[in-house]
Hints:
- This protein is mainly α.
- The protein folds into two domains: 6-87, DNA polymerase, domain 1 (Orthogonal Bundle); 115-304, hpI Integrase, Chain A (Orthogonal Bundle).
- The chain is 53% helix and 5% strand.
- It contains 13 helices and four strands.
- Strands 1-2-3-4 form a four-stranded mixed sheet.
- A hairpin with a 5-residue loop joins strand 3 and strand 4.
- The radius of gyration is 27 Å and the shape is elongated.
Amino acid sequence: MDTPAADDWTGRYLEELRTQRKLSSHTIAAYARDLGELAHLAGHSDWTRLTHFDIRRFTARLHAGGQSPTSIARKLSGWRGFFNWLARHTLLPANPVDGVRAPRRAKRLPKALPVDEAVRLLDANRHGHPEPAELCDRAMFELLYSSGLRVSELAGLDVTFTPARDGAPASLGWLELEAQEVVVTGKGNKMRRVPVGGPAREAIAAWLAVRPPAADGSNALFLSARGARVSPRVVQHRLKNHAIKAGLPVHVHPHVLRHSFASHLLQSSGDLRAVQELLGHASITSTQIYTSLDFQHLAAVYDKAHPRAKLK
Length: 312
């Protein structure tokens, strides 16, 4: 009995994805393209002849040709799945894709606003008689930038500490205005205290003066339009709209304010350990990314100020 040709194996595999795994036509078409590219790279149609070293060589060619690490990783995943399937139907000695990794993705620097844009954002859309919802928004945005909180930490804040009772858990985060601090529980259930700056304290006090009782009877600091604890998604939506009204040219989300807090603090103090503690990073490696942002700021200052910075 003749062994099916490579195109037959590919067709049988794609048909199984369609009928048994119920993948969409779009996904199956993507698998077909990736397997077609593999056959083109190999220059032949005998899948059983491909080795681990062939796949490594093909990966290097894709990378040299300008394909992104993300795209290459997706193709390797698709190829690996195909050879796993093929091994159940042939005497394939080993999966040639096993152990082959895509090139490392370039580490993206977090986005941070310049200081003047951060101030412009927080000072925007102010008028003489703000509605309670506007005061709530102002307090949230000021606190995000003042204390570098994660949006989940902000949404989880209570007005004061509430002990566990009636089946409800104790507060994970709360406000201590007299101490000029907030207490939050971050990743890994690590609790930390973070200072709250003057403008944020003023904004929070203005909000507390008009804050209605929570509809769910909770002690939540920030409330949605329905009177329940605000969700991270609502905070993201409100901040995005606020930034658009302020005329900022970039998409602003809560983590941008956290990045801005860290970058601006590091630019002024140079104290990486302090920034690590304030952000709640378990490892200083996570905080070191902001040294790159700081260097970019210094390099920009150098280019503008130094008379020999640029060649004539």
